[in-house]
Design brief:
Strand order of the largest sheet: 4-3-2-1-10-11-12
Distance between the termini: 25 Å
Number of domains: 1
Radius of gyration: 17 Å
CATH class: Alpha Beta
Helix content: 25-40%
CATH topology: Purple Acid Phosphatase, chain A, domain 2
Strand content: 15-25%
Length: 247
């Protein structure tokens, strides 16, 4: 059997109540610890609800996750990261301090004879104007420079409040989402790959097209789902029960 390749996104560590944070962190770290030593892990953004890379400031809520990733890397597991709209600026820290391999959005990788295009997915589908603006802001070096002049505690409180308001505003209608995905897939072919794998949408879903499959990983906030590639087949699994999810 080929080595398993895992995919996760949208755990949003740092957001929510302390009890919610602890539950998500425990499940995530336990999931990491379950990997065999020859596995590979891809993190497709918004692992952290907000990250601005200060020289001397680190939110305590991130430490258990970082320790878990460090243990995973120490076991020889390859870990790769594609930045999301909430945590694009943690890429340098993950690369320089932990040894995580950082990939550009829409990178194509190959495993088990399958070609996989990896992206966080913000701005991918039509009608996502809020995130297109937010994505541009968090990737603007001048604005990030100005933001770092604000006290970290104040900036984090503002960012978490903005993130919470956004999640409450954008509830997922699964049938409407499938329609948007079909429109996207009909207008934008990914026939050069077998799977387009994305996060951001917070809904675990797979939609097949001619020769390729659109796969959204879901999240670690409500669905607790991730991707798992075994023997050339990508499935979505419930990490609380390891069951396959059929869309």
């Amino acid at each position: 059997m080929s080595a398993t390749v895992y995919f996760a996104s949208d755990s949003h560590f740092g957001a929510g109540s302390p009890a919610s944070q602890a539950l998500r962190c425990d499940r995530f770290v336990a999931w990491l610890d379950s990997f065999a030593a020859d596995s590979t892990l891809y993190l497709l953004g918004d692992i952290f609800d907000f990250w601005l890379d200060y020289p001397n400031f680190m939110p305590k809520s991130n430490l258990d996750v970082l320790y878990g990733l460090r243990r995973t890397l120490d076991r020889g597991i390859d870990v790769h990261f594609v930045g999301g709209n909430h945590d694009i600026w943690c890429a340098d820290y993950l690369r320089n301090s932990l040894g995580v391999n950082v990939l550009a959005s829409h990178s194509v990788v190959e495993h088990q004879g399958k070609r996989l295009r990896l992206t966080h997915g913000d701005g991918l589908l039509g009608g996502d104007q809020f995130y297109k603006v937010f994505r541009a802001l968090v990737r603007n070096p001048a604005l990030v420079f100005v933001a770092k002049s604000i006290h970290p505690e104040l900036l984090h409180r503002f960012a978490f409040a903005l993130s919470k308001a956004s999640r409450e505003k954008h509830q997922t209608d699964v049938e409407a989402l499938k329609k948007r995905i079909r429109l996207y897939g009909e207008a934008t072919s990914h026939a050069d790959v077998d799977y387009l794998i994305t996060g951001h949408i917070h809904c675990p879903i797979q939609v097949p097209f001619d020769g390729w499959t659109f796969t959204c990983l879901g999240d670690w906030v409500s669905s607790f789902t991730a991707g798992q590639l075994q023997d050339g087949v990508l499935e979505l699994v419930d990490v609380t029960g390891r069951e396959s999810i059929r869309s």
